[in-house]
Amino acid sequence: MPDATPPRTYAAPHPEPPHRNTPRRRRGWLTWLVGLVALVLAGVIAATGILARQTSYNSQAAWTRAQATPTVAVHTPITETAARSLTLPGDIEAYYQAPIYARVNGYVKMWYKDIGDRVHAGDVLATIDAPELDQQMRQMKADLLTAQTNQKLAETTARRWQALVASNSVSIQSTDEKVADAAARAALAKAAQANVDRIQAMLDFKQLVAPFDGVVTARRTDIGQLINAGSAASERELFVVADLHRMRVYARVPQVNSALITHGMKASLKLPQYPDRTFSAEVVTTANAIDPQSRTVLVELQADNPKGELWPGTFAQVTFQLPGNPDVLLVPAGALIFQEHGAQVATVDADDHVHLRAVMIGQDEGTNLEVLGGLTPEDRVIDSPPDTLSEGETVHVAGAARPPASPATAQR
Fold it and tell me: Hey, how many other C-beta atoms are within 10 angstroms of the C-beta on 408?
């Protein structure tokens, strides 16, 4: 019998209409896309800011380093080819100068020449009263008279004995003794005469006389002064006489220039008392030896002095005209550095790096220095280098382009 139960039916699910969920999905994608773009933009902005900040920092650091680099002025050494002058201190002395000392003891009786007086050879400068010496003279004359009397008696006796020996009245031995005694008496008379002459020579020194024509430049005695004979260090001269017709000038030339000073070379003299005048002098000789203490050679010049304007003891500036020396370089005096390694100068290479070089210094000409070794004409020498300058340091040469100022500095 067929089942009476009706067959079970199933309803198919209704599909969701497509138009109900599409806008929501679209909005999700847009949100995600907007977030992604925003994130990318934020990253770009952050990266740009960091890059700009790093660039600014690097620019500021470079500018700071450039500003911290010392700026120096450089000069190229000059080759000394032209004639140059060498000025040295000198001393003017008299052609002849003689200190006059006393040779006898006594007292100054009178002086006749004062400072500034012109004298001739043999002129009396002063006289000395020496009573003791006068007494010795009288004694020596008495001794001489005694000796001469004894000599005459001995000679007479000897002649008589020689006459008697022919008749055999006296012995030959006795005659020889008388002859020898006469010779001895003659020798004593000569000795007495020598003593008289010695005292007479001493008496002549009672008068102080000028040894040559000249000028009295010093008088250090007066009437009644006690005089001790001699020229010991404790005794000072009574007079000084100087021959001023021609003067001697002495200057010490550094060893480096000594070979350039020749006999007959002309020089000029400048004196403080004559600021607007120049006197001429001529080299006559040199010491031909270097002083080991000063490393200089003593040079003597002579200058005519017809008007007596040059005085002994005067300081003078002696200027020599020396020929140029192509082996000598001139650098500014301020370029010299004195450190533990001696005289040095600072040079700058092509990369603006500093190098310290030891040099040999010659003549100091005031504004310039002679460099005899250690440099070449192509070197760039720093003038007045800073005290803190060291080997290998980078410097900025004055006149060269510097790094531009940073933007921040420019805005300020």
Answer: 11
Contacts of residue 369, defined as CB under 8 A and 6 or more positions apart, other chains included, come to 330, 331, 332, 333, 335, 336, 361, 362, 363
Q: Two tokens at 250?
A: 């002495």
Phi and psi (nearest 5°) for 326?
-65, -15
CA torsion angle 33 39 41 46 (round to 10)? 180
For residue 411, what pLDDT is reported? 41
Token digits of residue 21:
């969920």
Query: Which residue is it, tokens 């805005």?
Result: 411
Domains annotated on the chain, with CATH: 97-219 (no CATH), 327-397 (2.40.420.20)
Of 341, 94, 368, give the one whose Cα is nearest residue 240. 94
User: Are 329 and 80 contacting, i.e. CB atoms less than 8 angstroms apart?
Assistant: yes
Please indicate, yes or no, whether the overall pTM of this predicted structure exceeds 0.70.
Answer: no
Burial letters 329-367, b for 16+ CB under 10 A, else e: bbbbeebbbeeeeebbbbbbeeebebebbebebbbeeee
Residue type at position 199: I
Q: Which of 332, 313, 259 is nearest to 74 (CA)?
A: 332
- What would the pLDDT profile of 307-333 be if each residue is shown by its tens digit? 999 999 999 999 999 887 777 788 888
Is pLDDT larger for residue 382 or for residue 194? 194
Which element (helix H / strand E) includes 167? none
More confident residue, 213 or 43: 213
Q: What one-character DSSP code corresponds to residue 378?
A: T
94/77 Cα distance (integer angstroms): 43
> pLDDT: is 406 or 24 the higher one?
24
**In the block, which residue shows the tokens 């000084």?**
240
- Type and span of the H or E element at 223: none
Label residue 154 left, alpha or beta by phi (over 0 means left) and psi (-120 to 50 means alpha).
alpha
- What is the Cα–Cα distance from 360 to 346, expressed in whole angstroms? 14
